[in-house]
Design a protein that fits this description.
Helix content: 40-55%
Distance between the termini: 24 Å
Oligomer: single chain
CATH architecture: 3-Layer(aba) Sandwich
Protein name: Alpha/beta fold hydrolase
InterPro entries: AB_hydrolase_1 (IPR000073), AB_hydrolase_fold (IPR029058), AB_hydrolase_sf (IPR050266), Epox_hydrolase-like (IPR000639)
CATH superfamily: Alpha/Beta hydrolase fold, catalytic domain
GO molecular function: hydrolase activity
CATH class: Alpha Beta
Strand content: 5-15%
Keywords: Hydrolase
Pfam family, one: Abhydrolase_1
Mean pLDDT: 96
Radius of gyration: 17 Å
Structural class: alpha/beta
Low-confidence stretches: none
Number of strands: 7
Length: about 260
């Protein structure tokens, strides 16, 4: 599949990672390579409407993103996987767990929040969807960049800042708009998370303006036995700003999973 990175041994314990908005699967490259080198099978798809995935319609319901992930596991003959995501991808991982709890062997929830959207949040996401369809991604992406990376990160690593900006600008407007509309109407995952019976790691950056540390703590308190890693000096993309610190937290989850 052109819209899937499948790294590591075929018989390795599988890890399915959902990217955030408005990104693509390449944002997980450091983690996919780390997992593969440790003997895991890293499955990193482009979400419907993003990257090289097929175009989306007017709106992509969150259950559609989650069912796409389940269909991927089915195609590969896999019963279950560690399931994770960042930001919107983390919310899709929660939706996957809500729909398919028996297929989840562990949860990675990074830079994300659990509560469903408020009425005001729905209006803002719908307005953003209309905007990217009317204007394209460039202005929207430039505005998001300052929250995606901590200022210190952007200052010391301009190549990373350029890569993140280019990735956001390259997102198909139709897919990004459909994702925003679906996200605005996502189901409440908290009841299923409160019953989660799998190893769970929550990761957040201290400088994240979109999902502050308090949101991560709320997930940690909600999910039985969940562990929280706070990465200093990182914002909304801690996996790219501090791949080593993020990787150690991911190791602590993946090492609990046996073939």
């Amino acid at each position: 599949m052109s819209a899937l990175d499948d790294l590591g041994p075929e018989d390795g314990p599988p890890v399915l990672l959902f990217h955030g908005h408005p990104f693509d699967r390449s944002m997980w490259r450091p983690q996919a390579e780390r997992l593969a080198s440790a003997g895991h099978r890293a499955l990193v798809p482009d979400l419907r409407g993003y990257g090289q995935a097929p175009p989306a319609g007017h709106a992509t319901p969150f259950d559609a993103f989650a069912r796409d992930g389940a269909a991927l596991l089915d195609r590969l003959g896999l019963e279950s996987a560690v399931v994770g995501g960042l930001s919107m991808g983390g919310q899709i991982a929660m939706e996957f767990h809500r729909l398919f709890p028996d297929r989840v062997r562990g949860l990675l929830l990074a830079a994300t929040s659990a509560p469903p959207e408020t009425p005001g949040g729905r209006d803002r996401r719908d307005a953003a969807a209309d905007r990217v369809l009317a204007e394209g991604m460039d202005a929207y992406a430039h505005e998001l960049l300052s929250g995606m990376l901590a200022p210190a990160t952007a200052g010391r690593d301009p190549d990373l800042a350029r890569y993140v900006l280019e990735m956001m600008c390259a997102a198909p407007p139709q897919g990004a708009a459909a994702g925003l509309r679906g996200r605005a109407r996502r189901a409440d995952p908290r009841p299923s998370l409160a019953r989660a019976a799998v190893p769970t790691v929550v990761i957040v950056g201290t400088e994240d303006p979109f999902t502050p540390v308090e949101e991560a703590r709320a997930i940690r308190e909600l999910v039985p036995g969940a562990r929280l890693t706070v990465l200093p000096g990182t914002a909304h993309l801690p996996n790219l700003e501090d791949p080593e610190g993020f990787g150690r937290a991911l190791d602590s989850l993946s090492e609990t999973i046996t073939p």
